[in-house]
Design a protein that fits this description.
TIM Barrel, three-stranded parallel sheet, 11 helices, about 50% helix
């Protein structure tokens, strides 16, 4: 069995969000079923979604269950208003907004709480990942709320400050975590936080020498090389690394994404058994299995 610990099923080649909102239940079901059957055919039997704003992953969970698969979803992600991430769910301003949205998530039986803590890697400006969106007090409250409810916390974070805040708050998994230092690596090891470093989005761009991003390739390569160095260091010091492809992202396909991720880890120098352990054993922890 293969586990992809980070996908976005709502981002695919069968429909866009506008089409989804205007389509029939049967159309939605057929699209999601096709994607999941393709995963199943390739022995990818457990998936963890990073959220969407259209409840596609919520539908996928039930269909996956019918297919004998495991599918974990946050229903939708929580981001900060006027910051990165609103397209993955719902943006909030204050804790009162979070309380309201968390009630909706609980009604829909979220499997994990997904928080968008920082921006994404800026391909035009090396080192820029956007500002940390939530205050530490806001982050701490949301993490505590999820723990009291009994679900793990999945956090999108890049850069030293964002990742450091996530570690301090005691989240369960950190997604991406580009451009961090040894301090954050040791913090993840100490707190036994699972790291999903998502190599495929940048790695696939570099492998393709993407002509659409030819002016950004140097920055992408610098960021990617730092991520590789950090993964090697993290493994040496005992950080639990799981494989998540970010399928649905630019140049990362569903099904093919996790095999791209495996290849990128092989290219770093990790042997087959080590990568399989990351994928299955650490992936199981990421999915709270």
């Amino acid at each position: 069995m293969i586990i992809d610990s980070h996908i976005h099923i709502a981002n695919n080649t069968l429909f866009n969000k506008k089409e989804w909102r205007s389509s029939t239940f049967d159309f939605k079901t057929s699209c999601i079923t096709k994607i999941l059957k393709d995963y199943k055919k390739h022995n990818i039997l457990a998936l963890r979604d990073g959220g969407d704003g259209i409840f596609a992953s919520c539908m996928a969970r039930q269909i996956a269950k019918d297919e004998g698969m495991v599918y974990k979803t946050p229903i939708f992600a929580i981001s900060k208003k006027d910051h990165y991430g609103a397209f993955l769910g719902r943006a909030i301003s204050e804790i009162e907004d979070f309380k309201r949205e968390f009630s909706v998530l609980k009604e829909n039986k979220l499997d994990h709480l997904k928080l968008i803590l920082t921006g994404m890697v800026n391909f035009d400006k090396f080192g820029d990942v956007g500002e940390v969106a939530f205050t530490y007090e806001q982050l701490e409250y949301m993490v505590k709320s999820a723990k009291e409810y009994g679900v793990p916390i999945m956090v999108h974070a890049n850069g030293c400050q964002g990742v450091s805040d996530a570690i301090r708050a005691g989240v369960n998994t950190i997604e991406h975590a580009f451009l961090i230092s040894d301090r954050e690596l040791y913090g993840m090891a100490e707190k036994e936080i699972v790291w999903i470093p998502t190599l495929s989005p940048l790695g696939n761009i570099l492998d393709a020498k993407d002509p659409n991003l030819k002016d950004q390739l140097d920055v992408i390569k610098r960021v990617y090389d730092i991520q590789i160095k950090n993964i090697i260091k993290a493994h040496e010091i005992g950080v639990k690394i799981a494989l998540g492809s970010d399928a649905g992202a630019y140049r990362v396909g569903h099904i093919t994404g996790i095999f791209d991720e495996i290849k990128h880890f092989n290219d770093i120098g990790f042997d087959k058994d080590t990568v399989l352990k990351m994928c299955v054993e650490n992936g199981s922890k990421a999915l709270n299995l």
